[in-house]
Amino acid sequence: MAEANSKPGESLDKALPSGVEYDEAIMAQQDRIQQEIAETSQLIGDHEDLLLLSKEYSEEDNVYQGKIKDLRSKYKCFRRTRGDGNCFYRAFGFSYLERLLDDRKDLERFKEVAAKSKDMLVSLGFPAFTVEDFHDTFMEVVEKVEQQIPVEDLLATFRDQGLSDYLVVYLRLLTSGYLQQNEDFFVNFIESYASVKEFCGHEVEPMARESDHIHIIALTSSLDVGVRVEYMDRAGSEEVNHHDFPEGTEPKVFLLYRPGHYDILYK
Amino acid sequence: MSEAQAALLLRKQLGDLSKSPVEGFSAGLIDDCDVFKWEVLIIGPADTFFEGGFFKAHLYFPKEYPQKPPKMKFISDIWHPNVEKNGEVCISILHEPGEDKYGYEDASERWLPIHTVESIIMSVISMLADPNDESPANVDAAKDWREDYNGEFKKKVRRCVRKSQESV
């Protein structure tokens, strides 16, 4: 830490923290920010009116206000997710399982895909011991969905940090598994890493690493679950643009993207 | 819940390791009531100066395990570039991505929730055999290793090996 009472005239180096202290100060600050986020927002929020979004932007901000209006004509409400770097996985996981509460046919299909996924991960060289642990927890939640627990119970599951993070880890593993299985294709989109495996070890499997298109394509393809992302950014007109992943599929999950963050939308 | 989950996973690993031990180390708890604190005994890898040694180390797991990595500290004296003089082990997989103050290369493997006690100790054993010279935690040991491998480095390591044998 820099000394608060350093006298004027002292060299600048002295007043500034050294390299290591500086890094530590940044890490401590990041921890504080994470803690603050955790205190002020739930992992998955309650239903909220989309009108509340318009308060977050200036009234004169025609692009955003226009987009919110457009969004309100297409969706009923939304749920916020915590901005902790895991929001895409958590939003996707919750929203899809919530939908499966009312769709037994798709649930049957999904259960089969999810059950098989463990062997796929182990065959790729992930350690069986830990994969099994995450897989079992994931399947327990899928079974709860099969028993048609109330939405509140599913919400409680996703709001329980430990359990919720376990589900995120498993979705991250599935994403990594799909990328590695289709390495020949995905290697073309990876910059600054020597291999798909290395990319996964740094950008997919670790917690709190944010998701990009490539992650979304991989996870939605791996589970064969269509996701529509509505983009609310500075680009273009006063209408929100959307993109469906994987391309051309019927969306079952609807997400709102604002730069760096995903929330859940409801029709 | 998170703490219970971590405790459960650690108990499972403990059971697994005592049922089917892995060559090269043994593991147990420091205190049977606390599953978050482990004691491991690492056998110095063959064909290295550490051969013949039995090095005791402690692992301290956070409540957020496996989202966050444990800390590891050698209790036995050990002279190695990647082990601090107070015994703390500095390898990249025990650090989360983004913790860059250790100066690891970007490509080095970081902590992932799928790591186990076994995979951690295996990395430590391979570190003993093959130090990472780029980000030494013990600068003096790194210097010995680089400049006087068969002299000073060997002498200090063998001294630790003898000491570790006496205390077993």
From TrEMBL, chain A:
InterPro entries from the UniProt entry: OTU_dom (IPR003323), Otubain (IPR016615), Papain-like_cys_pep_sf (IPR038765), Peptidase_C65_otubain (IPR019400), Peptidase_C65_otubain_sub1 (IPR042468), Peptidase_C65_otubain_sub2 (IPR042467)
Keywords: Hydrolase, Protease, Thiol protease, Ubl conjugation pathway
Domain named OTU: residues: 76-267
MF terms (GO), sorted A to Z: cysteine-type deubiquitinase activity; ubiquitin binding
Domain of life: Eukaryota
This protein's record includes keyword Disulfide bond: no
Enzyme class: hydrolase
GO BP annotation list: protein deubiquitination; proteolysis
Record-listed E.C. numbers: 3.4.19.12
Reaction equation(s) it catalyzes: Thiol-dependent hydrolysis of ester, thioester, amide, peptide and isopeptide bonds formed by the C-terminal Gly of ubiquitin (a 76-residue protein attached to proteins as an intracellular targeting signal)
Site (Interacts with free ubiquitin): I217, Y231, D233, Y257, Y262
Active site: residue positions: D84, C87 (nucleophile), H261
Family listed: Belongs to the peptidase C65 family.
PANTHER family, A to Z: UBIQUITIN THIOESTERASE OTUBAIN-LIKE, UBIQUITIN THIOLESTERASE PROTEIN OTUB
Annotated protein name in UniProt: Ubiquitin thioesterase
Species this protein is from: Branchiostoma floridae
Gene (name only): LOC118420595
From TrEMBL, chain B:
Residues forming the catalytic site: C90 (glycyl thioester intermediate)
Described purpose of this protein according to its UniProt entry: Accepts ubiquitin from the E1 complex and catalyzes its covalent attachment to other proteins. In vitro catalyzes 'Lys-48'-, as well as 'Lys-63'-linked polyubiquitination. May be involved in degradation of muscle-specific proteins. Mediates polyubiquitination of CYP3A4.
Transmembrane segments: none
Name of the protein in its database record: Ubiquitin-conjugating enzyme E2 G1
EC number: 2.3.2.23
EC supergroup of this enzyme: transferase
Pfam families: UQ_con (PF00179)
GO molecular function, one term: ubiquitin conjugating enzyme activity
Coiled-coil regions, chain positions: none
GO process annotations (BP): proteasome-mediated ubiquitin-dependent protein catabolic process; protein polyubiquitination
Family: Belongs to the ubiquitin-conjugating enzyme family.
Positions of the UBC core domain: 5-166
Gene3D superfamilies given in the database record: Ubiquitin Conjugating Enzyme
Listed InterPro entries: Ub_conjugating_enzyme, UBC, UBQ-conjugating_AS, UBQ-conjugating_enzyme/RWD
Keywords: ATP-binding, Nucleotide-binding, Transferase, Ubl conjugation pathway
